[in-house]
């Protein structure tokens, strides 16, 4: 009897453990890493969750590639169902698939910082989704497909112990949410978070028009140094500018669909970290 209840207890622990792993994976994917943004097709109302992760609608074209977000549902033919955990992890944090280097649109540089536990959680969450078949045209890639640069300090996995420090936590959130991939200035056509962290200037072209990513360094006039925490929080989770008007869809769609789900602790850490970025003009 005692043995039975011990077994039962172990089983319960295991179920609870995997539930919390899935919850954590869901939080990371939905509130911070926004995989849907490129990997889920869109309808006029937003993401088509009935075909979640079966591949994105948007085609990204550059001289070296023409790709769309792949089918990352567990479908055995058109998705990543047959991939091993190690293969999935390599695609997420290193931008390499079993067929070779992925186009740098897949933002692996932002995900390299994932702690081992969080990377397990993301993989578990993806694997628990419904397999969806798709028939997207093959991806086109040529050239060297240079990986993009990570934020200094977020180039390798962070540790759970390290994340106890709120500024490390803020850096972690900024990295996973790709803030600095969009908001850093460019050098030779690629975001340069080493020299131009948060400086702004990248141009995003969408059907709604072109937008320039803002300077979000601590600079008091060119950046967001003079904004209050409340104003920053509102911009991040609602997509509303300092003047109360909606920000362009490149930012506002992410805010509404994803960053609005951020935990209070993560928002506070992110804002505290943003305030430590060196002012740039
Ligand atoms: C900014 C857009 C974007 C975001 C955000 C994004 N991806 Fe990707 N991802 C891509 C693109 C584009 C490709 C295809 C690249 C190629 O084929 O060269 C890709 C490829 C992949 C692949 C390789 C699949 C294959 O069949 O080769 C995996 C796995 C993957 N992404 C997982 C993820 C996960 C998990 C997330 C969220 C944690 C994520 N991606 C977020 C754009 C994105
Ligand atoms: C896909 C690219 C992209 C990502 C990812 C992104 N942003 Fe933005 N963000 C933009 C663009 C483009 C604008 C300019 C919108 C406008 O001018 O209406 C913007 C505007 C802002 C603004 C308003 C600044 C101002 O001066 O009005 C803030 C603050 C901001 N982003 C912070 C962040 C933070 C923090 C993150 C990460 C949690 C983030 N953004 C992620 C593209 C992005």
UniProtKB/TrEMBL annotation:
Residues 20-130, 165-278 form the Cytochrome c domain. GO terms for molecular function: electron transfer activity; heme binding; metal ion binding. Keywords: Heme, Iron, Metal-binding. Gene3D superfamilies: Cytochrome c-like domain. InterPro entries: Cyt_c-like_dom, Cyt_c-like_dom_sf, Cytochrome_c-type_DH. It comes from the Bacteria. This is Cytochrome C. The lineage of its organism: Bacteria, Pseudomonadati, Pseudomonadota, Alphaproteobacteria, Hyphomicrobiales.
